[in-house]
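Let us practice reading a record.
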Amino acid sequence: MSANGFSFSRNALCVIVVSLALQYSAACQPTAAPAPLNSRGDFAGPVDIGSDRRIYLECHGVGVPTIVLEAGYRDSVRVWSEDLRQLGTLRTIVLPGVAAFTRVCAYDRPGTIAPLKDDVRPSRSDPVPQPRTASAVVADLHALLHAAGVPGPFVLVGHSLGGLFVRLFASTFPDEVAGLILVDPYSEGLEALLTPERWAALVRLNVRHGFDTVKTIPGYGDLETLGYGKDNVVMRRAIASSPLHAMPLAVLAHGRPFELTGDTEGFSSDPLEAVLRKANEQMATLVPNGRLFVAKDSGHYIHQDQPELVIEAIRQVVEGVRGRETWYGLVSCCAK
């Protein structure tokens, strides 16, 4: 817990709980002019997506397919590119690790943030009014990739609620997606795995922790806000009308249980963990030969706890896209 009250999600429930006190240092929204995107070189800067809006994008490395990293709820691209744990040891974080073997891009959704000690750094994309919907997030990402000329098809990597975003993108634009890696993803299937009473309790728990509350980041604008579970029906309809086509799919699940403190609406660790694991198992069945791996020493933020496991999962999906026999012949991947 930082001095300003931002908790880097040890106590999150899947997407789930992000608690913010929002006493941030003021920061300015991006003002730099858009720069041309070189599809073979390093790029970091704002991209004009039309409607007088710019979104911050980073791309590094060379190769195909292009990896697109989608962060979890309220997390900026820095969660993929910086060691936010700062444990004093030199580690390779996901974005630079993936750039060593293929092209990789990541972006800031409007209203996202990243903590660093006592500072919280806001999104470098133009702010938009909140709350938003998963469909609006997918539309932004699609507009960004095309405005920037990022070559597809893409391998999409989504953490937490970002897992729902990339799955919705894959169902909405199936010809543009060649593979998926879901990192401890949020699942709309949680609603069906719980009784109506327990689902309502989970929604209340997240509402109480500020999931649905629109707050202001001083000097920037609205904090990213989506109603907890309110896009479940959108995702179910997308899967029903446009199921995922056969592709390499890896699902990484956390192995270290969530910490439950305070009023937990009657949830306890073991039953909750069983439901979350079942949801991840179901996710791995969305396509033939989808695979589930458990990061035994990781909490919800596997890409910060054990980034090497996420890098390896991405590497193997990339190899599966380049030569499908390498994926369908896999026996094991990255659980440790």
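A brief commentary: The chain has one domain: 43-328.
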